[in-house]
Amino acid sequence: MTADLMGGTPRPKALVTGITGQDGAYLAELLLEKGYVVHGVKRRASSFNTERVDHLYVDPHQEGVRFFMHYGDMTDATNLIRIVQETRPREIYNLAAQSHVQVSFETPEYTANSDALGTLRLLEAIRILGLEREVRFYQASTSEMYGLVQEVPQRETTPFYPRSPYGAAKLYGYWITVNYREAYGLHASNGILFNHESAIRGETFVTRKVTRAVARIALGLQDTLWIGNLDSRRDWGHARDYVRAMHLMLQQDEPDDYVIASGEQRSVREFVLAAFAEVGVRLVFKGEGADEVGVVDAVDLERLTVARSGEEGGRHVPIDGEGPIVPGAVVVRVDPRYFRPTEVASLLGDASKARRVLGWEPAHTFAQLVSEMVAHDLAEARRDELLRSGGFTTRNSHE
Ligand code: NAP
Ligand code: GDD
């Protein structure tokens, strides 16, 4: 079978912006599994930034290559036009964004440029090239647009009230996508996705920050998890389930907008408790506000030993007298630096339209998500511990 044909017909071709991000990587995997040719847009960076998709890379000199990356940026219109012109995709998934809410307060103009105007630039590229009838467009919209929520749970008809430069920029992206659908007949859909996580989630989003810290505390590589608002509540799902929904939206005869959510809500505090439980630590929270702390209440030594050494009984990492995990130890502390100028306190989605129209169902539970993330970060922490004990240095990345 050639790279261009599948069963005698041309392979579907997709262009994915934000290919190096969490969702870009899972979506690329999904599309390749489905037989697509996948073109991704990656940013020029001073060091490699393709770790999440390196396993998909095939030397372009080989036969039958179906995964390609192109340098590009959402702030560069001419570049986007050229990439769309050269790749001529059937489906475009616009996932690229400055996606960190807190960072958007520090870089509001850049966030608007990449997330709001970037979406416009890509839509205009389609129009300038006269591809309105050929291309299907997916916009990565977000539950952050609901912000100060006007209705619980949030659904497609719930009014928006963004609470950050990120939320406001994404609101523009949402409406300009709707406008291009209505004005030019473009098959353009918004996925209003609630928080979705995974083992490859960016390390500074709260779930990954927690699971990394739990693993590193368990291995004695770190003493404390410094965290922000523990009361914040989110509707967390698994990214693999959510990229399936993106693809489904573009397979519909008619474009439309869909909420994608798990329909369950938990606090950041509950996430922290669940993650520590994965390594055999029962935590209790004491105090209030910025003085609240998470204290080790009880330790299941058998479970902690497995967490430290690995399921296969790998290298034994001794516990006694080492590391911060002893009853009474404070392992979680609040740092108001992580509080946001305006917070989105609570998000809960109603995905019944997606379930009904797209036939979408999430396959992962919250418990599976936490378990997978902690297991992945334990493996990384064990590797770091092994390297350090062998006299090597390991990466020391910080927010
Ligand atoms: P992510 O991991 O932060 O990935 C963002 C991607 O966008 C990365 O590939 C990043 O490149 C790229 N990017 C950032 N600025 C760019 C620019 N100016 N030009 C070109 N590329 C740029 O985000 P994610 O979690 O995969 O989310 C994917 C999309 O869904 C984003 O638009 C996000 O806002 C939206 N969303 C996410 C969630 C969620 O819970 N994950 C929920 C709703 C909506 P680098 O790798 O070089 O940084
Ligand atoms: N990042 C972070 N770091 N968040 C913290 C921390 C911390 O130390 N402590 C508490 N939080 C709280 C935040 O204040 C927020 O209420 C919640 O945890 C979730 O924060 P993030 O994980 O950073 O995600 P987010 O909800 O702000 O944004 C994510 O989800 C959106 C969809 O609702 C991002 O992926 C956005 O791109 C996405 O649109």
The portion of residues forming beta strands comes to: 15-25%
Oligomer: single chain
The average pLDDT value, as a whole number, equals: 95
Query: What fraction, in percent, of the residue positions are helical?
Result: 25-40%
> Which structural class fits the helix and strand makeup?
alpha/beta
Return Rg in Å: 22 Å
Low-confidence stretches: none
Shape: globular
Question: What is the strand arrangement across the widest sheet?
Answer: 5-4-3-6-7-8-13
The run of helices and strands is EEEHEEHEHHEHEEHEEEHEEHEEHEHH
Tell me about the largest β-sheet: 7 strands, parallel
List the bound ligands.
NADP nicotinamide-adenine-dinucleotide phosphate, guanosine-5'-diphosphate-alpha-D-mannose
| Number of β-strand runs | 17
User: Could you give the distance between the termini?
Assistant: 46 Å
Number of helices: 11
Structure notes:
The chain is α/β, with parallel strands linked by helices and 399 residues long. The protein contains 11 helices and 17 strands. The protein has helices at 22-33, 77-87, 101-106, 108-128, 165-184, 206-218, 239-250, 268-277, 301-309, 352-358, 366-389, and strands spanning 5-6, 9-10, 13-17, 37-42, 67-71, 91-94, 136-142, 187-193, 196-197, 225-227, 233-234, 237-238, 257-260, 266-267, 281-286, 293-299, 330-334. The strands form 5 sheets. It has a 7-stranded parallel β-sheet, with helices on both faces. Strand 7, helix 5 and strand 8 form a beta-alpha-beta unit. Helix 1 (22-33) packs across helix 7 (239-250). The longest helix is centred in the last third of the chain and has 24 residues, at 366-389. The radius of gyration is 22 Å and the shape is globular. The mean pLDDT is 95. Bound molecules: NADP nicotinamide-adenine-dinucleotide phosphate and guanosine-5'-diphosphate-alpha-D-mannose. NADP nicotinamide-adenine-dinucleotide phosphate (NAP) is lined by residues 17-18, 20-24, 41, 43, 45, 49, 73-75, 95-99, 114, 140, 142, 193, 195-196, 202.
